[in-house]
Write a structure and sequence with these properties.
Blueprint lengths: L4 E3 L14 E3 L13 E3 L13 E3 L15
Parallel strand pairs: 1-2, 2-3, 3-4
Length: 71
């Protein structure tokens, strides 16, 4: 993806097409292809494929797999 920021082991690991994302924390958004999403916390937003989501906290949104505008 383009214009992404990833801080933490495996954060945004498999994000191939997502853009304008911020992922902070180990495994944050590691299996997702989200766009315009902010994720802070280990395992947060791990498998979400929607976009324009905000997940804050350890494992926040970890089991959400689809959807947009989740907070």
């Amino acid at each position: 993806g383009d214009n992404n920021v990833a801080i933490g082991m495996n954060s945004l690991l498999n994000n191939k097409i997502g853009r304008e994302c911020i992922a902070i924390g180990a495994n944050a958004s590691s299996n997702s292809n989200q766009e315009e999403t902010t994720v802070i916390g280990a395992w947060a937003g791990q498998s979400c494929t929607g976009g324009k989501n905000t997940f804050i906290g350890h494992s926040a949104g970890r089991n959400i797999t689809t959807g947009v505008n989740n907070i």
